[in-house]
């Protein structure tokens, strides 16, 4: 089994949510660094979320929603099918 095959496959939701995060950030004309700073997280982790390479805890969603100055409900209001 290769390294690539051993990697955990990410749920479609994580990939779609990551795309949504990136779109939202671009629409608001904010950099990854700006959102990461406001959320109190590392920019590298935010990149992983945007690329759908890392699952996110609900508490992190709250911090990111706060950084965007929107509610968690608004953050989650997107087409989950990707």
Task: Give the helix level as a range of percent.
Answer: 55-70%
CATH topology (level 3) name: 434 Repressor (Amino-terminal Domain)
Which architecture would the CATH scheme give at its second level?
Answer: Orthogonal Bundle
Anisotropy-based shape: globular
Q: If helices are DSSP runs of H or I spanning 4 or more residues, what is the number of helices?
A: 6
What is the highest CATH level, the class?
Mainly Alpha
The number of distinct β-strands equals 0
Give the count of structural domains.
1
Q: Structural class, from secondary structure content?
A: mainly alpha
Biggest sheet record: none
SSE topology string: HHHHHH
Strand fraction: under 5%
Low-confidence stretches: none
| Spatial extent as radius of gyration | 13 Å
User: For this entry, what is the oligomeric state of its chains?
Assistant: single chain
* CA-CA gap between termini: 29 Å
* Average pLDDT over all residues: 90
CATH superfamily: lambda repressor-like DNA-binding domains
Domain HTH cro/C1-type: 21-75
Keywords: DNA-binding
Protein name: Helix-turn-helix transcriptional regulator
Pfam family, one: HTH_3
Salient structural properties:
single chain, 82 residues, mainly alpha, 434 Repressor (Amino-terminal Domain), 6 helices, globular
Q: Could you give a quick summary of the protein structure above?
A:
The protein is 62% helix and 0% strand. With 82 residues, the protein is an all-alpha fold.
